[in-house]
């Protein structure tokens, strides 16, 4: 949308939760967390989509929570929170990954 609130448009329509959106450095795509692939709605993974709502692509395949993704300013690193590799259920840690197109 515009800074004044006009021209709002919905980018996703997945009938599941979609949250923590963050623009790719190119400004043409958005990375976000969603539970769209889990029928029970408990498993969140990272997805990307073009700003026009096309090209949905799953980024992570983890059977627990992945969320809150952000890119480094140069777009070479992705940081996100995850329950993977926790020492106990529900433990959330921060992960940094190299982003390779």
Keywords:
101 residues, mainly beta, four-stranded antiparallel sheet, three-stranded antiparallel sheet, 0% helix, 38% strand
Give your account of this protein's structure.
- The protein is mostly beta strands.
- It contains no helices and seven strands.
- The protein is 0% helix and 38% strand.
- A hairpin with a 5-residue loop joins β1 and β2.
- The model has no long low-confidence stretch (mean pLDDT 95).
Largest sheet: 4 strands, antiparallel
Q: So how many helices?
A: 0
How much strand?
35-45%
Radius of gyration: 14 Å
Mean pLDDT: 95
Series of secondary-structure elements, N-terminal to C-terminal: EEEEEEE
**Given the helix and strand composition, which structural class is it?**
mainly beta
The tally of beta strands, per DSSP, is 7
* Helical amount: under 10%
Rounded to the nearest angstrom, the distance between the terminal CA atoms is 27 Å
Low-confidence spans: none
For the biggest β-sheet, the strand order reads 1-2-3-4
Could you say which overall geometry the principal axes of the C-alpha atoms support?
A: globular
